[in-house]
Amino acid sequence: MRRPAAPGAEPAPTGTPILAVRDLRKHFPLRGGWLGGSRGVVHAVDGVSFSIARGETLSLVGESGCGKSTVGKAVLRLFDLTDGQVLLDGQRIDTMPAATLRPLRRRMQVVFQDPFSSLNPRMRVRDALAEPIRNFGLAPTREALDRRLFELMDTVRLPRDALNRWPHEFSGGQRQRIGIARALAAEPDLLICDEAVSALDVSVKAQIVNLLGDLQARLGLALLFISHDLAVVEHMTHRVAVMYLGQIVELAPRRAIFASPRHPYTEALLSAVPVPQPGAARQRIILRGDVPSPINPPAGCRFHTRCPYAFDRCRVEVPVLAPTDPGHLAACHLHDRPAAENPLRPAQIHANGSQLT
Ligand code: SF4
Questions:
Q1: Closest Cα to residue 111, out of 252, 234, 224, 24?
Q2: CATH code: domain of residue 33
Q3: Mean per-residue pLDDT for 75-98?
């Protein structure tokens, strides 16, 4: 898989971000208690903030159930927020009435894990792609519509005659290309890819990731890439936000997070990513226990029940997401300790042998 264009040149988040999420919370009440009352509240997302610049890819990663897909759905306004704000190009959309929001929906499109479930089996590809173009009034004539459909097939590298076929006639990878074409048909500024390559074989996965990278470079799309697969994320993102139990615990540029994780949870996730060089090995960190229930998250640091470095303060005080290095944020009390007592910040040694930190 190719890395994003101009590696190292993380797009500077200049101007108004295309997407800004501020202190997003989504709690789901659990029904079914005594006399139909509440049995508690699922804290699916609890105070998540990030922004995405035009042309940038931000990957939201973490184990299943950490709340990353809920963030994607909240951005798409598939439900109302419990609290917080979502801004598209500087405009608050979380409180916008449905009629005002409708034309703005064109600017945010989604690609799901299973394209088969998002394509109508009784619609030929032509009709599936033409639907958003017509709905948003993007092709004034029949000729313009045909031109646009051909262009979309070329863009996702499918033959033009595939327009006349049915979804069941395609392989999983081809169906995902159709799903991407349908999302692009609306001419969006932001693409939300929710586990978009998780169900694909390794080689097909690489093709779709490369396609998304090319589209981004060519069309200047912003991508919110939601995935549990850090091996994929490493090849296609500018920045990474790591989620644990409804909160972002680390947020940093790709190279910084993969080279020097500053949160024990990220360190453990990365230890499970296969190393591409033959013979090279990473020491796998096995986390103890299961992810706690989001109905009753642990006090203090939510990760303390599994963290190999937890100490007394972690059990009572919530760590805040704060800078540890330029552009690198982590929520961990270890960074308040002297470097010699911080296992996530190995001491740097001068060429003359003296210790730098
Ligand atoms: Fe581990 Fe404590 Fe850091 Fe939480 S705050 S990640 S428990 S060391």
A1: 224
A2: 3.40.50.300
A3: 95
